[in-house]
Automatic annotation (TrEMBL):
Domain of life: Bacteria
Protein's name in the database: Phosphatase
Organism the protein comes from: Limosilactobacillus pontis
Lineage of origin: Bacteria, Bacillati, Bacillota, Bacilli, Lactobacillales
Cited InterPro entries: HAD-like_sf (IPR036412), HAD_sf (IPR023214), PGP-like_dom2 (IPR023198)
């Protein structure tokens, strides 16, 4: 195993709550009222475009393309502000230990966060010394930036979309979370705290032995 790619959201920290906080600020600024906290669960796991659709629907707002881009830019600005509160206490339990173990075994590490701000998040969480690539591209892009073969990498994923993309890139996949959503992963665990370096190494070895 030469490289590992970890999703930021759900593997390293919970960014859904910060994305929702930024949407609450957009709602207050644009429509004069916030989004109730009870709606946070409905925004969990959504892309920014999908979240915007929910905001527009709630306030019966127009859907002009120019308005969408302005609102997305505004939300991104607010998101950058709330990220300032992110710190080591927000790390998912067990992930720092795993990252250090990967680093100690000379495994190159990329973190993947399509919504942007990956460098900022890495620094806020004090992981920058362990991370080789903080990117927003495809798995293929991240593998290229790590400068390791795809077959030498594992990917830790939390959703079906990322699992499919990682499988298509020929990465060894570890699904973390809902087993039904992560069928097709080379290995599954229910939570980040179950992950160990030795486990990742064995799954990677076994996967290639069986091919």
């Amino acid at each position: 195993m030469q490289g590992a790619i970890l999703n930021v959201n759900g593997i390293i920290t919970d960014l859904d709550r910060l994305q929702f906080a930024a949407w609450q600020k957009v709602a207050m600024y644009e429509y004069g009222m916030g989004l109730p906290g009870k709606l946070a669960k409905d925004f969990k796991g959504l892309s920014r475009e999908e979240a915007l659709n929910k905001v527009l629907a709630r306030f019966n707002a127009g859907d002009a393309d120019t308005d969408r881009q302005e609102l997305l830019a505004e939300q991104d600005k607010f998101y950058g502000q709330v990220l300032a509160d992110l710190g080591e206490d927000d790390l998912v339990p067990g992930i720092k230990k795993l990252i250090i173990a990967l680093y100690d075994h000379y495994v190159k590490l990329a973190i993947n966060y399509p919504a942007g701000h990956a460098d900022e998040i890495t620094k806020q969480l004090k992981l920058d010394e362990f991370v080789d690539v903080a990117g927003t591209g495809t798995y293929q892009d991240l593998v290229k930036q790590l400068d390791v073969p795809a077959t030498g990498c594992v990917a830790l994923v939390t959703n079906q979309e990322d699992l499919q993309a990682a499988n298509d890139t020929r990465l060894v996949t570890i699904g973390v979370g809902d087993a039904d959503q992560l069928q097709g992963a080379n290995y599954q665990v229910s939570q980040v705290g179950d992950l160990r370096y030795q486990m990742l190494e064995k799954v990677w070895e076994d996967t290639h032995e069986n091919k």
